[in-house]
Amino acid sequence: MDKLExxxxxxxxxxxxxxxxxxxxxxxxGHKNGNAYSTGGGAxxxxxxMRYDVTEITGTDDLHHPEGVIQEAQELAADCFGxxxxxxxxxxxxxxxxxxxxxxxxxxxxxxxxQRNVHKSxxxxxxxxxxxxxxxxxxxxxxxxxxVAPAAEAVQAALAAYPEAAAVxxxxxxxxxxxxxxxxxxxxxxxxxxxxxxxxxxxAHYGQHPALPxxxxxxxxxxxxxxxxxxxxALTMGAMLHVQGPRLDRALLRQRLAMxxxxxxxxxxxxxxxxxxxxxxxxxxxxFTAGLAAVDVLKRxxxxxxxxxxxxxxxxxxxxxxAGTAAGEPAPPASGAAxxxxxxxxxxxxxxxxxxxxxxxQRRLEEKGIVPEMSDDRHVVLAFSLGSKAEEAAALLGxxxxxxxxxxxxxxxxxxxxxxxxxxxxxxxxxxxxxxxxPRASALVRESVHSDSPDTVAExxxxxxxxxxxxxxxxxxxxxxxxxxPVRFTMKPVSQAETESIPLEYSIGRTSAEMVxxxxxxxxxxxxxxxxxxxxxxxxxxxxxxxxRFQACADPLLQRIRVYNIQKGGEV
Length: 572
Description:
17 helices, alpha+beta, disordered C terminus
């Protein structure tokens, strides 16, 4: 297009014109603008949507060969989010992750370096592409016990050990909104002439307001996948893939996108992506004012409610304006911190008194009409957005006050007054995470995270007051190694004749024959071909007892697990 107009929403506007024209449909879909439901009770609210539900006809363009309104919408998206080229996705970030992996690894047996705690769509991409995966250990924030992303040193070491690697893939931010500067990772990748791919599913809004962390593109990433439906206001499944630089084969990427996306994409879904982009493109920082005001209501309220803490990094290191550290510029002095940025729209709370675990706190909030995004053994994740309202945050505070009264913290054995007190951090009155109860416990847990010795881990677990970081969240997958040996993934199905179902408690040392995925957040804790360690078994048992929901495994309650027969084996 000659001149981009941020105030336009070309796909949405085309659908409005389609409805106004009232042409007679002799094309699919078969509901005929909803007329098929004129009898038989009607289609309810879906009837209105059906009036805009079209297909590839004259004037509607084609997602897989865009020349008109879809092309214009994608060019506007690239301008809004700082990409050289953007692609609309109707299959969520899943479609973008699959397409990127199939692009950088076009032949089976190629090597990809990535962090182990990735979304299941990435694991599926490894399988489809026949990748040899080198898994990097994510850094652990020892205050919260949550894993973030691999350190720059891990990326550099893995690339040195496997110079044939086709790309590096990381997730940023994590499900909790936690992150760190990606620019050093981008520089290391580019020095080795490989692209940096980023699953930024939870960071579509990054870089759009001074209070938000920098986006992956601004930090130098080559391919970035964003779930526009998660933290921006597109319909569910609406996402985008952004690319820049010369390191990705864009012709092959288009072909891969056509493979993994429907040939009949939803036009209402694409129109919602168009509208979400227009809202941000025209409103810019102002689009987030109301949502951030709602977050501020929560923060100020928590400052007066000592019972509940709010997760934040020890020192905020975000650059004013959300610009971050651009790739190619000198990095700020390394602090060694795994966790330096927090998405303000991801409010991660916890019971600072330690009375209510995260799962129970979520249950009690839901009883009061407050529905969180997810919880783990310690935390509850509350997802705000530019659509959040201050009065809703006030209702959340009211629910927390009610919970505080119903489950009082006072009198809990072993809890010191210091552990119940609030602290000021970065000028805002928020509470730090309840600390480990003794310096020895803290030191042992930190050592156990990076130890291969079962004795060290056991000693940390036995120490009074020590929580176990690896077990706090299903987001955490910690092996104690900077990076792994290559793990081969294939599409070879698991033969039932080579497997057996056994009680979970007897699975230690056996090789998993199925994927085990707690959802949310959808991070596989086991994949087929992975040896089940003592720690992994204990963790799965704890999750099962806690009522976690599992996908991909034969027993959704995880009382039993499928493993390979001892005398046989199989490829991943």
